[in-house]
Amino acid sequence: MIQVLCILTLVHALLIASSIGNSAEVQPVSPTTPEIFKQFSEHVVKIEVVESGSAAKAAIGTGFFVNARGHIITNYHVVSKLIHSPERYRIDVSGVSGLTGQAEVLAVDVVYDLAVLRSNSHPKGFLTLESKPVEQGTRLYSLGHPRDLGLTIVEGTYNGLLQHTLYPKVHFTGSLNPGMSGGPTMTHAGKVVGVNVATEGEQISFLVPAARAVALLERTAKVESPAAGSFLAEVGRQIHTNQERYLAGMFSKTTSSVALGPYSLPTKPADFFRCWADALRRKELPYVAVTHDCSTDDYVFVSSEQSSGIVRFYHQLISTAELNPAQFFTLYSAQVQAGNVAPFGNEEEVTPFRCQTRNVQTQTGKLKAVLCARQYVKLPGLYDAVFRAATLGARNVGLVTTLSLSGASFDNVQALTQRYMESIRWRR
Amino acid sequence: MAALGYIEILDAKGNVTERVRIDSLPVHIGRAYSNHVVVDDPYVCPAHLTIEQNEQGDLIARDLESVNGLYASGRSDRVATLALRSGTQFRIGHTSLRFRSVEHPLAPTLVDRGVKESHFASPHVAAFIVVAVLLLLCLESYLGIVERVTFAKVVSEPLTSFSMLLVWAGLWALASRIVVSHFYYSQHAMIACGAIVGFSALNVSSEWVEFLFPFIPALWIVGLLGTGLILAALVYGHLGFASPMRRRSRLWAALSVSAAIIGVSVLSDYAGRSKFSNVMEFNGVVKPLDAAWVPSTSVDRFMETSQKLKSDLDALAQKAKASQP
C-alpha cells in the first residue's frame, strides 16, 4: 500500500500551472513562439487558492478562458482544497494584463482531474478546445505558471494518447512543472488539445484530452449557480461510479495466471495493469525471494493526502534449502507482517484500519487470510482495503500475496477479495 | 518470685535493644542510676516514670512531672498516666519502651530457609539449571535467526540476557543481605531462571494460539494476564528470600506489583489505541504445521464475517464525522 502510493506519486507528480487563449483565427503561416505567446497569453490566468483567514495562498495553478462568459478550465487538483473545505478557501484569478477577480467552482470531474470555474471578471478573449486528435509529432505550446515564476511558454511535441491506461491521457513531450497544472497545451493556431496535468520528469508530461473538457463544459452549460454547499458529494459519486466501471469482473476466472513455486497466482487482470517481476538471490542469504508485482499506473487525485482508484497486488514467494522449519517460519511470519502501515491518511479523511484475520480453506489449500479496511470519512461508502494471504502447510516454501485497493465500495472490496482469494491455487 | 513481665527498650526499627525483668511493683524508669530501668537518653528526666498497680489491679504508667512527658506510641498528645497491657508501647524523651507480660503470645517459630532448601541451592542443581536456561536462550535465538547462522550471532543476545539475569539476582541478593542478613544468591538466580522459562513458554504458547485461533478477540489480554502472573510469582519468590514477610503479605505485595505493571501497560496501550494511526493491526504469525491440523473457515464464511468489519468502519466514520467541525 505504502509503496503503491509512493510509486504512483513519484510517477505522476501533479502540476499546478497556467495558459493562453485565442479566437478562431486561422494563421496561414506558422507564427513564431513569441507571436503565439503574445497572442494567447491574455486568455490564460493564474489561479490561487487563498486561505480566507490568513489571506495567504494555499495552492497555485493555471487556468484558461473557454468562452466569453468567463468560464475557466483548470485541474480539479488545483482547487481541491476548496472542494474539501469551501468555508476556508476562496479562488483568486489574475491575468497578465492586470485582470484580477475571483472565481467560483461550477463543476468538477475528479476522475479526469478537471474543474470548470466562472470568473466574475470578463475575459478579453478565450481559447477553443480541439477534440479531434492531431498528428503525432505536431508542435505544441504549453502555457502556465511554473513554480509561480510568471507566465511561461513551453514548446513540446504531441505523442499521441497513452496506451493501456485506465483514463486516456495525451503524451506530451515537453517540460511541464508544478504550477502549470490546468494550463492549456495548444497548437500554433491556439487550438487546445489538452490540459496540463502531470509529469514524469525528463520531458515526459501528460495532458487531459480536450474532449474531456468539452464534455464537462457541456454538462456545465446549464449551470447558472453552483450547487449549494459542497462538491464533495459529487466527488464521492464520481469516484463511486468510476470504481464500479473498472473493478467490475476484475480477477474473474479468465484472468491469466503466473506460476510461482508450487502456486499459481493471478497476473495482469486488465490492459491497464503493469506487472514486474524480480528475484532476490544473494549468497549471504539462506533463502530466495521471488516477487511479482502488478499495479495500475493511474490514480484519481482526491486530496493531497488521498488518492483513489489504485489497484496493486504483489506476490512474494520465499523458499529455503538451508533454514530449518522453525527458522523459516520466523522469516515467513515477518514477511506476513511486513508493510502494515499505510503511507497516507489523516484523521480528517479516513478512519483507522480495522482487520479481520482467519485461516481459510480454499479449493486447493489453506491460507492465513487478513483483510484490513478503512473508510473515507468525507466520502462515505468508499474504502481503502488491503487483503493479504499466506499459504500454509509447507515447511520450506511460502507465499505471501497482497491486494490493495483504494477508493472502492465495500461490495467491490468483498467481491475482489473473494475472487482474488479463489485465484490463489496450489498446482498439482 | 515469678516475673511479672519485661520492660523492653526499642530502637528506631522496633527491635529490642535491652530487656529488663520486672519482679515487683512499682517500677521506676528514668535516666538516674537509682531506677529499675535506666534509660540512656538526654531527653529523659532522671526520675521520669513509674509503673504501679491501681485499685483494680491494672498496671498504670505515671509521668513523674517530667520535662518532656509521656506519650502513647504513635500519639502526639502528652498523657499523665497510661494503662499498660502486655504489648503496650510508649515513648519518653526519644526512647520507645514496650511492656510485655510473661504470658505474651509468641509468633510461630520460623523455618530456617537456609537449611530447608539446601538441596535447591546446591551448587550442582544450580549449575545445571543455569546451563539449561542458557541453552534455552541460545535455542530461542538460533530459531529466530533468518540469516546464515554464526556462533557469535547465536550467543550474543542470550549472553546479554543471561548477564542481566545474574545482575538482577545480585541486586536481590544484596537486598536479602541487608534485610535478612543472608545473600541467597543462587536462590534468587533460580527464581529469575524460572521466570525466564515462564516467559518463553508463554511466548511460544501465545504464538501458537494466535496462529491456530486468530478469530479469538482480545487474545492479548490473556497474554497480559499470563505476564502478570509470572511477574507476581517472580516478586513473591524473591520476597520470600529477601524479606521476613509472611506468606499472605508477600502474596499481596507480589499481586500489587504485578497489577501496577499491568495497569500501566494497559493504560499506555489504551492511549496508543485511541490515537489515530495508519497501522493495520493484525498478527502475521504463521507456524510450520501440516495444513490438515489448522482449524479453518470457508472463503464464503470469511466474506460473510467481513460484513462485521464494514459495520465497525461505518460506526468509526460516523464518529469521526461527528467530531469534525
Can you characterise this structure?
The complex is a heterodimer of chains A (428) and B (325). Chain A contains seven helices and 26 strands. Chain A is 19% helix and 40% strand. Chain A folds into two domains: 12-229, Thrombin, subunit H (Beta Barrel), CATH 2.40.10; 240-426, Protein Transport Mog1p, Chain A. Chain A is α+β, with helices and mostly antiparallel strands and 428 residues long. Helix content of chain B is 49%, strand content 16%. In chain B, the strands form two sheets. Chain B has a six-stranded antiparallel β-sheet, with no helix packed on it. In chain B, strands 4-3-5-6-9 form a five-stranded mixed β-sheet, with no helix packed on it. In chain B, strand 10 and strand 11 (95-101) form a beta hairpin. In chain B, helix 3 (151-180) crosses helix 4. Strand 22 of chain A pairs parallel with strand 12 (297-298) of chain B, so a sheet runs across the interface.
Describe the structure in brief.
The complex is a heterodimer of chains A (428) and B (325). Chain A has 428 residues and is an alpha+beta fold.
Write out key terms for the chains shown.
heterodimer; A: 428 residues; alpha+beta; Thrombin, subunit H; Protein Transport Mog1p, Chain A; 2 domains; 7-stranded antiparallel β-sheet; 6-stranded antiparallel barrel; 7 helices; 26 strands; disordered N terminus; B: 325 residues; Tumour Suppressor Smad4; 12 strands; 16% strand; elongated
Cα gyration radius of chain B (Å): 32 Å
Query: Which residue ranges of chain B are poorly predicted, with pLDDT under 50 across at least 5 consecutive positions?
Result: none
Quaternary state of this entry equals: heterodimer
3D shape of chain A = elongated
* CATH hierarchy class name of the largest domain in chain A: Mainly Beta
> Percent range for helical residues of chain B?
40-55%
What is the helix tally of chain A? 7
Going by helix content, strand content and strand pairing, the class of chain B is alpha+beta
Order of strands across the biggest sheet of chain B? 2-1-11-10-7-8
Gap from first CA to last CA of chain A: 32 Å
